[in-house]
Specification:
The protein has 118 residues and is mainly alpha-helical. It contains 7 helices and no strands. The chain is globular.
């Protein structure tokens, strides 16, 4: 949950863990991705702790403010490969398999694809 949500949001905004925790738009995007992941987990019969989102942010805040995600570094340095399909693509695929909408992940995934192809 932590890696996928933070990697997607930091990659979209070319920002840091601290920005995701503190900037309202980025924080909301991360929360919505985590909600989509939680819905998928429930669909697979996996019950996550009710404070998983809150605890994910607590974990993120233990890192230095300017910490980037590895996917963000790969995307914005124009490396040939990244974790986008592994992280974002998997959320989208599991959502489709379980008939669970993943609109935020899908939107951000497509925005990052645009960054890659620009």
């Amino acid at each position: 949950m932590f890696i996928a949500s933070f990697a997607l949001v930091t990659s979209k905004h070319n920002s840091s863990f601290g920005a995701v925790c503190n900037e309202p738009v980025q924080r909301n995007e991360a929360v919505e991705i985590m909600r989509e992941i939680n819905a998928i987990a429930l669909g697979k019969g996996i019950l996550l702790d009710e404070k998983v989102i809150e605890n994910t942010f607590k974990t993120a805040m233990t890192f230095p403010f300017d910490t980037p995600s590895s996917m963000q570094l790969d995307i914005h340095s124009k490396k040939q490969s990244s974790e986008l399909d592994l992280l974002g693509g998997s959320i989208i695929q599991f959502g489709k398999e379980l008939n669970i909408d993943t609109p935020i992940t899908t939107t951000i995934y497509n925005e990052i694809k645009s960054i890659i192809h620009s």
